[in-house]
Amino acid sequence: MHKEILVIDDNPDIRSIVSNILIEQNYVVRTAANYDQAVFEINKKLPDLAVIDIKLDKIEKDGIDLLKLVTTKDKLIPVIMISGHATVQMAVEATRLGAYEFIEKPFSKEKILNYVNRALESYELKKEKNIIENKLFHSFELIGKSPSIMKVKKIIEKLSTSESRVLISGPTGTGKELVARKIHKNSIRSQEPFVILNAALLKETTYEKELFGEEFEDGSISFGALERANKGTLLIDEVSEIPYQTQANILRVLIDQKFKRLNGSKDVNVNIRLISSTSKNLNDLVKINKFREDLYHRLNVIPIELNSLNSRTEDIPLLINYFKKKLSEINGVQVHNLEINNDNLYTYNWPGNVRELRNLIERITILSANEPQSNINQLINDILNPASSNYSSKDILEKSFTYSLKEARRSFEKEYLTTQLKKNHGNISKTADFIGMERSALHRKLKELGIKGIN
């Protein structure tokens, strides 16, 4: 299928020259002679690439405004800006706003074709990258057999026939977005849009625009998250960050299932399923008037709690094996003999939780292919920097200098046996075999040290 290019210039000669150059190369070309025509063409159908002149017929609106319109609708679409009166400031501003390239008039046939071909190649690569990343993320599973993860899996199963609103809470990196995607994928809305609004990344003045969209004097529309998610699912990530006044407007949408765009006069009806996530305790925020109580109760119909990784270390071996296989396939790395088994993986605090573990495994699979085990362990130690961990062997060693010999030995044994149990999913027999103790003797030692069963 031939690529479609939109050429926008108020000079008919330039439009004709650029169009003919592109048509000769089998591109499909649409043109616009002024600002209003350009807005109409952009709203009618987005091109694969746009060539836009800076100076157009309107004094108050120019090519920069059209650049903003295109990138608002799809930030991946490449835009080449052209001008006969270019300044460095213009070029810098256009590039800052997302223009692929800025060309001064007059330009040669070779130059414009070179930029167009490169821009389209870049566009295709970015689209392919997004497709791969989306498939990769969608294909990730919720891994673990710890009680907390099994509970979450059961809730997701039960939600497959429900339209209830869900509030997912847990520390950063525990997989809140993954759980939201699984809920959407298992629901009757699975073929409809899944839209994410990350409230933590927005400026305070842009929340309403990002949620409700905006109408402009020229008739163009910037669609908000609510409208883009219509018939599907909207995930509001870090919902605690939404300003108090905007919370009231969201509540109104949940009640009425309609809203008005900014500067709009007509109601927009929507049918969405709302999932919210937070790394903060919303109930605590309600108590100090930082979050609306009425909205909290509307959102918290089905609560899902994700625990930190260091509270479910029995899942770490499962996650390591899963990520090792998954990420090695994506990165094209052979890891058949790669052993990732280091005590620091079980005593490290994991402030970034599962996301941090995933990143670590990806680095190891890429950097440690065909490396000896000693090098892999050293890499893990360097990455984790166990000296900064809340509970590491180094801490034990340093503290032991204040202990008697008996106390130091007891402290070391407790640390060592706890780590080995976690590595073996709490299995007493496997742990006993590994450390060279009789099963009954290990039971007595665990009881003596006050180590409870690790499931």
Secondary structure layout:
Elements: E1 4-8, H1 12-24, E2 28-32, H2 35-44, E3 49-53, H3 63-73, E4 79-83, H4 88-96, E5 101-104, H5 109-139, H6 147-158, E6 166-169, H7 176-185, E7 194-198, H8 207-212, E8 214-215, E9 221-222, H9 225-228, E10 233-237, H10 244-256, E11 258-260, E12 267-269, E13 273-278, H11 282-287, H12 293-299, E14 302-305, H13 316-331, H14 344-347, H15 353-367, H16 373-384, H17 393-400, H18 405-423, H19 428-435, H20 439-449
Parallel strand pairs: 1-2, 1-3, 3-4, 4-5, 6-13, 6-14, 7-10, 10-13
Antiparallel strand pairs: 8-9, 11-12
Task: Supply database-style keywords.
alpha/beta; Rossmann fold; five-stranded parallel β-sheet; 13% strand
Written overview of the protein:
By secondary structure, the chain is of the alpha/beta class. The chain folds into 3 domains: 4-132, Response regulator (Rossmann fold), CATH 3.40.50; 144-307, 3-Layer(aba) Sandwich (Rossmann fold), CATH 3.40.50; 313-449, no CATH class. The chain has 20 helices and 14 strands. The chain has helices spanning 12-24, 35-44, 63-73, 88-96, 109-139, 147-158, 176-185, 207-212, 225-228, 244-256, 282-287, 293-299, 316-331, 344-347, 353-367, 373-384, 393-400, 405-423, 428-435, 439-449; strands at residues 4-8, 28-32, 49-53, 79-83, 101-104, 166-169, 194-198, 214-215, 221-222, 233-237, 258-260, 267-269, 273-278, 302-305. It has a 5-stranded parallel sheet, sandwiched between helices. β8 and β9 (221-222) form a beta hairpin. α2 packs parallel to α3, α13 (316-331) packs across α15 and α18 (405-423) crosses α19. The longest helix is centred in the first third of the chain and has 31 residues, at 109-139. It is globular. The two termini are 56 Å apart. Mean pLDDT is 85; it is low at 386-394.
